[in-house]
Design a protein that fits this description.
The complex is a heterodimer of chains A (163) and B (296). In chain A, 33% of the residues lie in helices and 16% in strands. Chain A is an alpha+beta fold. Chain A has two domains: 77 residues, Beta-grasp domain (Ubiquitin-like (UB roll), Roll); 75 residues, DNA polymerase, domain 1. In chain A, α2 packs across α5. Chain A is globular. The termini of chain A are far apart. Chain B is an alpha+beta fold. Among the domains of chain B are: 45 residues, no CATH class; 125 residues, Enolase-like, domain 1. In chain B, the strands form four sheets. Chain B has a five-stranded antiparallel beta sheet with strand order 4-5-10-6-7. In chain B, strands 1-3-2 form a three-stranded parallel beta sheet, covered by helices on one side. A three-stranded antiparallel beta sheet of chain B has the order 11-12-13. The longest helix of chain B has 33 residues. Chain B is globular, with a radius of gyration of 19 Å. The termini of chain B are far apart. The chains are: A alpha+beta (163), B alpha+beta (296). Chains A and B meet through β4 of A and α2 and α5 of B. Chain B: This is Xanthine dehydrogenase family protein subunit M.
Chain lengths: 163, 296
C-alpha cells in the first residue's frame, strides 16, 4: 500500500492505503470523495472517467494512481465553483444534451478542453474531440448542439467572465 | 504488489536488472485494463512515466530517435513530415484520451498483432533500441515480433526508443474498423515508398499471429517499378501490377476468424487497403516528381 499526493481541482490532496494497481479513477471516487468522474467500462473505451491530467484529457481508469503522484488533476467537479455552472455545463443543460447523465461528466471535461484549445471548432473538430466519449441515450445531436452553443457563448463573453 | 517509480533511465535499468519480472508501465492503456479486470497481478510495476528522455525525440540527419513514451498525439502533430506513416497510424489510435497517454514503446512492449504502430514501423524499416544494464542493442523491426503478444526483448531489457529513417518518399497507412475512432483494427496496412533505394516496404496488422511484411509483394512491385522505369518517369503503376501487388499482400496474411472479423474478410480487406495505399502513395510520388521536374 502506498500514499499518493496530487493536486485535484486546485487543492493539494493526499490518499492513503492506495493499492499499487489501483487507478486514478478509484482514488478520485472512493478515496477523495469525487464521484463526478464515472466508472463504466474500466478499459478506456467509454470516456466517462475523462479528467485532465497535467492539462490533457485522459481516461482516469487507465492511469495508475502512482502515476498521478505530484500531478495536477481537474475533474468535472472543478469546471466551475461550487454551486455554479461553467459555460459548457450550462450549454449542456440548455441544449438538452443530458439524458441519463452517466456520460455527461466525461463529455464536459472533453468539450471544455476542446474549447480551450480551439474556441471556434468546426463540427469535424467537435466530433473528433468527443470521439472517445460514448453516449447511449442522445444520439449525439444534442451534444453537438451543446458544444456549438458553448463555443458561441464563450466567444461572446469577455475573457475575464469565463467560468 | 510493489510500485517502482524510477526518476531516471539509469535507475529504471537498474530496477529491471534487479527485478526482471517487473512489468513496465508506460501509457497504461493496455496494462491498466488487465489490472482493472483482474486478469493480471504482477508482483511489481515499473512506472516509466517519470523518465523525461522517454518523452522526447531527436532527429539527427537521416533518422529520428523517437522516445518510447512520446504520446501518439505528439507524433501525429509533430512528426508528420519525418515519419508520415507513423503519424497517420498514430491518428487512428483509439481516441484523444488514449493518444495522450499511449506511445510506441507500449505498443511494441505489448506486441499485439493489432497494435496500430506496427505496420507503419515495418514499412518504414525501424529499429528498436532495447537497453539493459548490460548495454544497448538495436533490434531490426523485422526480428522484433515473435508471436502473438511476444517480442524479442530479454527479461531485463526496456525499450528506450525506436529509430526510424526519416521518410525519403511518400508513406501511407489505412485501417479497417467499424467506426473512425475507438476501434481495434480488424486489419491495417502500412506502405512506404523508398525512392532512395528504389524499394517499397509494407506492413500488415491484425491479419497474422504477428505484424508482418508482404515481402513477395514488395519484391514484385519493386521489380515492376524498376522494369517499367516508373521511379524515373513517375508514370502510373500498371493497373495489372497494382492488382497483383494487392493479391500478393492478401496472400501474405494468415488471419483468423474472431469477433472483429472473419479470416476471409481480413484477407480481402488487406488486398483492398494495399491497392488503395499504393495508389495514394504513388500519386503523391508522381506529384512530387512532377514538381521537381517543373522546378528544374
Amino acid at each position: 500500500m502506498m500514499r499518493v499526493r496530487l493536486t485535484v481541482n486546485g487543492r493539494a490532496r493526499e490518499a492513503d492505503d492506495v493499492w499499487e494497481g489501483e487507478s486514478l479513477l478509484y482514488v478520485l471516487r472512493e478515496r477523495l470523495g469525487l464521484p463526478g468522474s464515472k466508472n463504466a467500462c474500466e478499459q478506456g473505451e467509454c470516456g466517462s472517467c475523462t479528467v485532465r491530467l497535467d492539462g490533457v484529457p485522459v481516461c482516469a481508469c487507465l492511469v495508475a494512481a502512482g502515476q498521478a503522484e505530484g500531478c495536477e488533476v481537474v475533474t468535472v467537479e472543478g469546471l466551475a465553483p461550487e454551486g455554479e455552472l461553467s459555460t459548457v455545463q450550462r450549454a449542456f443543460v440548455d441544449a438538452g444534451a443530458v439524458q441519463c447523465g452517466f456520460c455527461t461528466p466525461g463529455l464536459l471535461v472533453a468539450a471544455d478542453d476542446l474549447l480551450d484549445r480551439n474556441p471556434k471548432p468546426a463540427d469535424a473538430d467537435i466530433r473528433e474531440a468527443l470521439s472517445g466519449n460514448l453516449c447511449r441515450c442522445t444520439g449525439y445531436e444534442k451534444i453537438m448542439d451543446a458544444v456549438r452553443l458553448a463555443a458561441a457563448r464563450r466567444c461572446a463573453e469577455p475573457e475575464g467572465d469565463r467560468a | 504488489m510493489e510500485f517502482l517509480r524510477p526518476a531516471g533511465w539509469e535507475e529504471a535499468l537498474a530496477a529491471k536488472a534487479e527485478y526482471p519480472d517487473a512489468v513496465p508501465l508506460a501509457g497504461g492503456t493496455d496494462l491498466m485494463v488487465e489490472l482493472n479486470f483482474g486478469h493480471r497481478r504482477p508482483e511489481r510495476l515499473l512506472d516509466l512515466g517519470r523518465i523525461a528522455e522517454l518523452k522526447e525525440w531527436e532527429t539527427d540527419g537521416d533518422s529520428v530517435r523517437l522516445g518510447a513514451g512520446v504520446p501518439y498525439t505528439r507524433i501525429m502533430e509533430g512528426l508528420r513530415r519525418e515519419l508520415p506513416g507513423l503519424a497517420l497510424a498514430s491518428h487512428t489510435v483509439a481516441s484523444p484520451q488514449i493518444r495522450h497517454r499511449g506511445g510506441v514503446g507500449g505498443n511494441l512492449g505489448t506486441a499485439s498483432p493489432a497494435g496500430d504502430a506496427h505496420p507503419a514501423l515495418l514499412a518504414a524499416g525501424a529499429e528498436v533500441e532495447a537497453v539493459s544494464a548490460r548495454g544497448t542493442r538495436l533490434i531490426p523491426i523485422d526480428d522484433f515480433y515473435l508471436g502473438p503478444k511476444r517480442n524479442a526483448l530479454a527479461p531485463d531489457e526496456l525499450i528506450r526508443a525506436v529509430r526510424v529513417r526519416r521518410a525519403d518518399g511518400p508513406q501511407q497507412y489505412a485501417k479497417v474498423g467499424t467506426r473512425n475512432a475507438m476501434v481495434i483494427a480488424v486489419c491495417a496496412f502500412g506502405l512506404a515508398l523508398h525512392p532512395q533505394t528504389r524499394s517499397v516496404r509494407t506492413g500488415i496488422g491484425s491479419a497474422a499471429p504477428t505484424p508482418v511484411r508482404a515481402r513477395e509483394a514488395e519484391e514484385f512491385l519493386g521489380g515492376v517499378l524498376e522494369e517499367e522505369r516508373c521511379w524515373e518517369s513517375g508514370r502510373v503503376v500498371p493497373p495489372a501490377a497494382a492488382r497483383h501487388f494487392a493479391d500478393l499482400c492478401a496472400a501474405a496474411c494468415s488471419p483468423i476468424d474472431d469477433v472483429r472479423g472473419t479470416a476471409a474478410y481480413r484477407r480481402r480487406a488487406v488486398g483492398v487497403l494495399a491497392r488503395r495505399t499504393l495508389g495514394w502513395a504513388w500519386e503523391e510520388y508522381r506529384g512530387s516528381a512532377r514538381a521537381t521536374e517543373g522546378a528544374a
